[in-house]
C-alpha cells in the first residue's frame, strides 16, 4: 500500500471512529435528557449491544416471568438491542399502568406479521389512534350491554343445536364449540344461516380465524401467511357483499351489516372509507371472542371432568333451578350461582391469554420512579395474577367455591374477567357478547351431560396432562373427556330443543 493510500485509509478510519463516538455521546446525552436520571425497571443484566436477547424465555414465558419477579419485583425490564420490554407481574402494576394511564399505554406494537396474517382489521391489534377509535365506536354501538339482548335468542338456539351435535359426536368437542360461535357470528353479523362445519362460509371463517392466533408463530407464518391473508379478505368481503345485495334488493334482513349500511344510506354517506370501516367492524365480530369462548369452554369441560364433585354440585343446582323439563336460558343466569362460579374458575385456572395482548407506550413515562421509554412493549402477565397464591388459595386447583360466599358470588374476590378481556381503552368491546355465549353453552351442557375422565380400552381412566399451549391465545393441551347424556330423558330434551332451534333460526342458506 502506498503512503498516499495508507494516509487516505487512516483518514477515513479516523473519521468513521469520530462519527461513531460522536453518535454514542449524542445518544448518551439524549438518554440522560429523556430519563432525567431515572433508572429503568429492574431485570437481568443486559449484554452490550445485544441486551437481554438470551434472557428472554422461549416457552411458557408467563411462568419464567413470574419466577423472575420473585427476584426483581413485579415490574421487569428487558432490552433487545435498543428495544425495551416491560413485564407487569401483579394486578396492582397492571391497574396503575394500563388502566390509570391508558392514554399513554394503549398503543400496539406493529409488525409485518400482523398485516400479512390477515389480522390488521382486528381491533385488538390496531394502533391506537383515530382509525381505531372510529372502528371501536361502530363496534361498541352493537355490542354494548344494552345492545346484545336481541342476539340472545340466536345464541340460545345455537347452543341447543350444539348439544345435539355434541351428543352425536362427543369426540369433536373442540370443532363443535368453534363452529357454534362461527354460526352465531355469521347469523348476527350478516344474517347468514349455516348448519354444517363444511359450509363454505364456515370454511372461510375458520381459515381467517387461524391467522390472528397462529400467524404470530414464525414457523407457521412463513408457510401459511398467503393463505391467511386471502382468507381474511374473503371473510371481510364475501358475506358482506351478500348482505349488501340482500339489502339493495329490498329483501327483509336483520343483521349488523344491514343496520350499519342502512344507517349510512339514511345519512347520505357514500364514502368508500366508511363502507370499509363497516366491513371491518362486522368481520371483527368473529375475532372479538371466538377463541376466548373456545378456550374457556374447553377449560370448563376439562375442569369438571377431572373434578366429579364439581359436576355433582352443578347438576344439583341446575336440577333445583331449571328442573328436568327444559334447558337453562338467560333468565336463569343470576340464579345459577355455582355455574357462574365454574365459568369464573375456568377463566382463572386456564388463562386464555397468559400474557394478554401486548401494549405499547406512545411517549416517555415515569412509573414508580422508573423511566419507561416511548415505544416500550408492555406485557401484562395475566397468568401470574390468576395464579397468585396470596389472592387464590391453592391456585393450581380447580375450585369454583372460591368465588362464592353465603350462597352468592363473592364480589370481594378478584374477578378473572377483569384481566382476561384486557385493560384500559383496549379492553375487549365484545366481552359481554362473549360472556353471554360462555354462559348459555356451559349452562346447557352441564344440565344434560355427564362429563367424566376419558377411559382407555381397558376401561380405566386415562391420565390427563394438564398444561397450556404456547401461543397468544392458549388452550388446554389435553382436554379429552367422556361426554354422555345424563339419562334418556336428558337425551330426549336435547333432541327436542335442537329441532325447535333449527326452526327458530330458519332453513340454512349456504349459497353465494
TrEMBL record:
**Which terms does the record give in the GO molecular function aspect?**
heme binding; iron ion binding; monooxygenase activity; oxidoreductase activity, acting on paired donors, with incorporation or reduction of molecular oxygen
Query: Which coenzymes or cofactors are required?
Result: heme
User: What pathway is this protein a component of?
Assistant: Secondary metabolite biosynthesis
Primary location group: membrane
Family statement drawn from the similarity comment of this UniProt entry: Belongs to the cytochrome P450 family.
Where is this protein found?
Membrane
The name this protein carries in UniProt is Cytochrome P450
